[in-house]
Amino acid sequence: MRSVADRLASLVLAGLAAGTLGMLPASAAAPTAAPPAADLKSEGPTQPAKVQDGQYTDKNGDPTYHITEGGKKVDWYTMSGYVRYSANCLACHGPDGMGSTYAPSLVDALKGMDYAHFAGIVVGGKRDVNASQELVMPAFGENKNVMCYLPDIYTYLRARSDGAIGRGRPADHEAKPAAFEKAEDACMK
Ligand code: HEC
């Protein structure tokens, strides 16, 4: 029997390899026509290279944000990431990823951190043995409330880190993709 963490981690990596990052294999998702290039343009320094079922990825296949309307409108995954971050990470990392006396700012930490590195830390945790105060980042590999939304949380934090969105709840978001709901149901089972 493989642990839930192993299975979820390999799903995440399989998603990465397939360049889709959804929890479903690409074949299960309804085929969508590539949108015109203009629709891919985002505010912020990172530009999406591709969108599939409402999920944007950069040229390396890492999840990324799609922000429009002067920082007010975000893609669905950024919105979902905001909600999941607030529920699972805010207590230690502070509101809007700003950091606290206990845990570092993720707005800073995400600068230049790719998705695989991020996923590795969140799945396995991290412990700073050299700090005068013992700092522990818990391992979330068994926690579906985090693992089922890992690309979402990364996408949200990346938008914060890039300065593409400000603090607080995004004002507006793109529609919830049907593929998101399917993947969520499958993952949360
Ligand atoms: C119980 C408190 C706690 C919670 C909850 C928590 N973290 Fe952490 N996290 C920490 C601490 C403390 C560190 C610093 C550990 C270290 O330096 O070794 C850390 C480090 C990290 C790092 C590495 C930062 C760097 O500079 O390398 C990432 C990424 C991270 N956390 C993401 C998350 C995410 C995403 C969530 C929510 C799913 C989360 N954390 C929830 C306490 C927490």
From TrEMBL:
Gene Ontology MF terms in the entry: electron transfer activity; heme binding; metal ion binding
Residue ranges constituting the Cytochrome c domain according to the UniProt record: 76-161
Keywords for this protein: Heme, Iron, Metal-binding, Signal
Pfam family, one: Cytochrome_CBB3
PROSITE patterns in alphabetical order: CYTC
Positions of region (Disordered): 34-64
Secretion signal span: 1-28
Protein name: Cytochrome c domain-containing protein
Origin species: Methylobacterium radiotolerans (strain ATCC 27329 / DSM 1819 / JCM 2831 / NBRC 15690 / NCIMB 10815 / 0-1)
Lineage: Bacteria, Pseudomonadati, Pseudomonadota, Alphaproteobacteria, Hyphomicrobiales
